[in-house]
Amino acid sequence: MPHILDGKKIAQNLKDKLKIEIEEIKIKSNRVPGLAVIQVGNVAASSVYVKAKTKAAKEVGIDVIDHHLDESINQSDLINLINQLNNNNDVNGILVQLPLPETINEEVILNSIVPGKDADGFHPVNVGKLSISQTNDENLMIPCTPYGCLLLLKELNIKLAGKNAVVIGRSNIVGKPMAQLLLKESCTVTTVHSKTVNIESICKNADILVAAIGKPEFVNKDWVKEGAIVIDVGINRINVNEEKSKLVGDVLFNEVKNIASAITPVPGGVGPMTIACLLRNTTIAFKNL
Amino acid sequence: MPHILDGKKIAQNLKDKLKIEIEEIKIKSNRVPGLAVIQVGNVAASSVYVKAKTKAAKEVGIDVIDHHLDESINQSDLINLINQLNNNNDVNGILVQLPLPETINEEVILNSIVPGKDADGFHPVNVGKLSISQTNDENLMIPCTPYGCLLLLKELNIKLAGKNAVVIGRSNIVGKPMAQLLLKESCTVTTVHSKTVNIESICKNADILVAAIGKPEFVNKDWVKEGAIVIDVGINRINVNEEKSKLVGDVLFNEVKNIASAITPVPGGVGPMTIACLLRNTTIAFKNL
């Protein structure tokens, strides 16, 4: 049986460390990091994520400022709110839950957050710094999901340098920053995607395989080398029958687990790490002030 | 014989187009793009590059403002100069020729240039935008050498999507932005480097091989697949005998040319493209105002 990477437990360890750090910050400065969470409208999945993030932030002692806005809000009003938060000294991190209504330009909104408060690490300045920096610095604002994946890999206490890493997917939120992080760990990094020829055989060569494509159970055992480490970023809801649904990853877990040396489950793998890394970014934003 | 990619000629075509564009700008606005070139000290290679860049800029009608500074200049005086140029409406692009003296922090200097005037495309904002944007946009400030390589590839009029591209080297100036550009052209992109295991066999799989390692004639025929396209970024001066030296690339040209379907020579390949792309960035900076 492979090593099942317990994201829930590893995320809890990170949260425990952050909690202690925030207690020390409070003693020292009589302040705690503040996170503003903006949700527009009532997309069900967004409500679930916002609730989980808010709960986790409060657990570690971060002050949460909730802004649940009607989906009819216009773009300039949203920007005005972000500008207020940019100038509010009690707010260290600003999170805009995606997706936004179609009437609002996501890129404009994300770029209106000052880089120092960009809790998601999506602002061009933070994306640029991530690419330029020679190491995966402690004070960088790094997109939460790929950084969570890296922390899972680091739990294995193996040498990452020289490993053949393949990232499936080239999104700005996961694939691209994941490739940057692995490159700085001195992995040999290949990014594959929908236009890739022979995707299966390239993946089959990977020592480390990160799947971030959003296709349920797409990666089966034929894609995976014996002994590979498999990180599954996918969170897909599929129907079990007419009444029941369940969450599955991008990897066919029950098949691949028999080949991999280590693998993340869905749920309970990357998901909890994403949330813990959001709290990390908020705390870093406080410390970077 | 392979297609020898004539960088000199292709760069000249780009410069001819820019010249026409700048003439039109002049007629329309009674202004021309301005490029400030800063050289600190007298490193011989820097003087050669600055001279070539200045000459090329003038050829296409760009106004060049030269700042040749003594190597004893301190960091804050250099920043003051950059701030003046940042605020000077006649200056659209600012180029700081690297390397700088050891007493000056290169990163601090490069970050002090406003992103809109960052003619080299090295500022975190421009690096971030290059990563985030879905296409290799006409109005992005893209690092000159990798963009020059992409333009050479485009001269071949082949379909880039799905091609297996391998970039040797992971510098901020070439390797990393090159990987981003090729990924946006929908290549499958692998970055290899000094820590890569089996580097030869990975390169041997490449449809497109970009060598940017700075090791003279390092890539020989055993690294190259029959019919591959080889782009040589290296510019290395080696001694022929006690009196004579010559420039060679990172690729053993005379061997690899017998295998490749297309290859760039050194000199006369990537080098002239780098300079032409600097002029492109300066013109874009003017148009983005």
Low-confidence blocks of residues of chain A:
none
Mean pLDDT across all amino acids of chain A: 97
Do you know the CATH architecture of the largest domain in chain A?
Answer: 3-Layer(aba) Sandwich
Query: Which range best describes the helical content of chain A: under 10%, 10-25%, 25-40%, 40-55%, 55-70% or over 70%?
Result: 40-55%
Quaternary state reads homodimer
Task: Give the N-to-C terminal Cα separation of chain A.
Answer: 46 Å
What's the main sheet of chain A like? 6 strands, parallel
**CATH fold-type name of the largest domain in chain A:** Rossmann fold
Largest interface: A-B, 30 and 30 residues
Primary descriptors:
alpha/beta; 289 residues; Rossmann fold; 10 helices; 6-stranded parallel sheet; 2 domains; homodimer
Account of the 3D structure:
Chain A is an alpha/beta fold and 289 residues long. Chain A folds into two domains: 30-115, 3-Layer(aba) Sandwich (Rossmann fold); 143-271, NAD(P)-binding Rossmann-like Domain (Rossmann fold). Chain A is built from ten helices and eleven strands. In chain A, the strands form three sheets. In chain A, strands 1-11-8-7-5-6 form a six-stranded parallel beta sheet. A three-stranded parallel beta sheet of chain A has the order 3-2-4, with helices on both faces. Chain A has a two-stranded antiparallel sheet with strand order 9-10. In chain A, helix 6 packs across helix 7. The longest helix of chain A has 23 residues, at 7-29. Chain A is globular, with a radius of gyration of 19 Å. The N and C termini of chain A lie far apart (46 Å). The model of chain A has no long low-confidence stretch (mean pLDDT 97). The A-B interface holds A 107, 123-129, 131-132, 161-162, 164, 170, 172, 176, 179-180, 183, 186, 188-193, 195-197, 202 and B 107, 123-129, 131-132, 161-162, 164, 170, 172, 176, 179-180, 183, 186, 188-193, 195-197, 202. Strand 6 of chain A pairs antiparallel with strand 6 of chain B.
